Amino acid sequence: MSIYADEMRQTAQAMVAPGKGILAMDESNATCNKRFAKLGIPTTEERRRAYRELILTTPNLSEFISGAILYDETIRQSSQAGVPFTQVMQNAGMIVGIKVDTGAKDLAACPGEKITEGLDGLRERIAEYYQMGARFAKWRAVITIGEPIPSPTCIETNAHALARYAALCQEGGLVPIVEPEVLIDGNHSIERCYEVTDQTLQAVFTQLRLQKVAFDQMILKPSMVISGLECPVQATVDQVAEMTIQVLRNNVPASVPGIAFLSGGQSNQRSTEHLNTMNVKYGALCPWRVTFSYARAIQQPALEYWAGHDANIPAAQQLLYHRAKLNGSASLGKYDPAMEKQTVLV
Ligand code: 5MM
After folding, report:
1. Cα 335 to Cα 196, 261, 272, 279, 326, distances in angstroms
2. Which domain of life does this protein belong to (predicted)?
3. In 211-330, alpha helices (H)
């Protein structure tokens, strides 16, 4: 058992406290720059820093955000006033998280499939991040649906890597967020997504067990069971909620404290509606908390409004706070689409 077990148990519970979710802001420089470039924002370290400061200093964000996942560049940065972001977060009552994978790369001998890298030197990096104040970590595996993929090689290899990562995190005192993402891209049906998600979660929990990961000290960050973006038949919100909860109930041990979904390219409102419906209709059947760990579905309106201009920061922060609030409500099953229109003073 890890010497950090008690602390990690408490951290994991706090990450999924009622009404709260986790903000993903761990975009690598390449992804962040791509999003900046689309909006004409200079792709510099200083603008990335300024944007992350905008997010982390949003007034009262911790009402709905328990913690945020940072990228390696961000965890080493400070506010304009010189306060390290880790300190800014702690002062605001948010737990510091860190993405520790180094990205999804082509999987040898498996065309069109990816394996997430980052295990080499991970023990040492975890120790450094813990010293810096991080208390949880994230690793994302990517599973693509196509014809005839995913291969068993891809599922097993990624499950193995996720479990090795999670075991190392728990040894070093970081609660692992285990993120197997079944991509939304493609023309597959929701039934096919269910099948692939089921196979993936089975493999992931088999490996987590094998590698002695403590389920009560981790968080699962899955994708929802959903129709492919180009599928001509798009599942309803009720279908997504029902099939997502079903696949999770079939695979996720009750001792896992929480499930925090990724948004994966869904629209802002849809990802909130899906989360809300799961909690309204199936909350009573779920042994774990069901909440969010969205990036795009929380950040996008704020990023677009800010567009790199400091004068826009207060209004952009209101937009960020608003989306966090809507998702916090959805995590309690208390969201109503009418809330989308509630006045935000931009
Ligand atoms: C799937 O992406 C994760 C959740 O974000 P969405 O809610 O937007 O789907 C997110 O944490 C993701 O892992 C990072 O943004 C991806 O960063 P890189 O740059 O490593 O792909």
Report:
1. 29, 16, 8, 10, 6
2. Bacteria
3. 237-251, 268-282, 296-306, 313-330
Please give the number of the atom of ligand 1 that sits closest to the Cα of 298: 7
71 Cα to the center of ligand 1, angstroms: 11
Q: Indicate whether 346 pLDDT > 70.
A: no
Task: Look at residues 27, 158, 168, 32 and name the one whose alpha carbon lies nearest to residue 105.
Answer: 158
Instruction: Work out which ligand 1 atom sits closest to the CA atom of 30.
Output: 19
The single residue of 221, 242, 273, 325 carrying the catalytic annotation is 221
Write down the pTM of the prediction.
Answer: 0.98
Dihedral sign from CA coordinates of 66, 72, 78, 83: positive
Find the helix or strand (DSSP H, E) in which 202 lies. Answer: helix 190-210
d(CA 11, CA 8): 5
- Domains assigned to the chain: 5-341 (3.20.20.70)
DSSP 48: H
Give catalytic status of residue 179 as yes or no.
yes
95 has which bridge partners?
A: 67
Within 6 A (CB) of ligand 1 lie: 24, 26-28, 31, 69, 103, 140, 181, 262-264, 294-297
Pocket test for ligand 1, best of 27, 51, 136 (most atoms within 8 A of CB): 27
Segment 131-176, tens digit of pLDDT? 999 999 999 999 999 999 999 999 999 999 999 999 999 999 999 9
